[in-house]
Amino acid sequence: MRITATHLSFHAQGRAIVDGVDLDIAPGETFGLIGPNGSGKSTLLRLLAGIERRAEGRVTLDGQPQRGLSRREVARRLAMVEQQAETSETLSARQVVELGRTPWLSALAPFGERDAAIVAQALRAVGMEHMAERCWSTLSGGERQRLQIARALAQRPQVLLLDEPTNHLDIHHQLALLRLVAELPLTVVIALHDLNQAMGCDRLGVMAQGRLVACGPPPQILTPELLRAIFRVGATTLTDPRDNMQVLRFHCLETDP
Ligand SMILES: Nc1ncnc2c1ncn2[C@@H]1O[C@H](COP(=O)(O)OP(=O)(O)OP(=O)(O)O)[C@@H](O)[C@H]1O
């Protein structure tokens, strides 16, 4: 599914948090959002998800204006995992993932075997099937994060919006999640702080002070000049002899105090 944003803006307390963002993300593309703290990445994701109704500008899903769709219709197309997604403390892990099926259920289509199979598959995808009966309140931060991703997968969306999905995960689960995301036949918009992980995206968008200041393939974006100007770091590109992939190593600028 194609997702587009036209002049998307959001103002709060008299200032632009997101400022005139235009985006066109192709079906199946993995689009990484990077930028310093407070540059507007999470807010932009919320605007793309239609969560923030005070947004200015337009979001379309396969050409259909998102504003014209009901919440249920949006949820059948698009799922979002926010940074600190919480849920009722008394639910089991499986019940949290079952919530993902809500947009597809009705009096005429109650939760059935197919829904249970989709939930089981989502739990397996994030390696949480062995904890399915555990209570949410007993789970670690990383386990909760993987469950929220499973909930989003169980929603069977065509667009997946992920806000720093690796921030609680150990390195094994970070790599497993990024591989899962890359292999999903979905359009994915993913906010990331790890710029080496961002290299694996098809395209990157760079946010700075609410604006999308650069957009393109990772090697064109992650240049020493941009890293210096936007992230205020120096960087050296190294080559991993294992697979000849480029890796960035960062250092403080000499001008830093
Ligand atoms: N509703 C709001 N009211 C006032 N300020 C807001 C609101 N929402 C976000 N902000 C501010 O807007 C800026 C952008 O926030 P946002 O969370 O989108 O940034 P971010 O790029 O995701 O940051 P981080 O990398 O730290 O997660 C921040 O300075 C934040 O404090």
From TrEMBL:
Lineage of the organism: Bacteria, Pseudomonadati, Pseudomonadota, Alphaproteobacteria, Rhodobacterales
SMART domains the UniProt entry points to: AAA
Keywords: ATP-binding, Nucleotide-binding, Translocase, Transport
GO MF term set: ATP binding
InterPro entries: AAA+_ATPase (IPR003593), ABC_transporter-like_ATP-bd (IPR003439), ABC_transporter-like_CS (IPR017871), P-loop_NTPase (IPR027417)
Protein name (record): ABC transporter ATP-binding protein
Gene3D superfamilies xref list: P-loop containing nucleotide triphosphate hydrolases
SUPFAM superfamilies in alphabetical order: P-loop containing nucleoside triphosphate hydrolases
Protein species of origin: Paracoccus aurantius
Protein task: Part of the ABC transporter complex HmuTUV involved in hemin import. Responsible for energy coupling to the transport system.
All residue ranges annotated as the ABC transporter domain in the record: 3-234
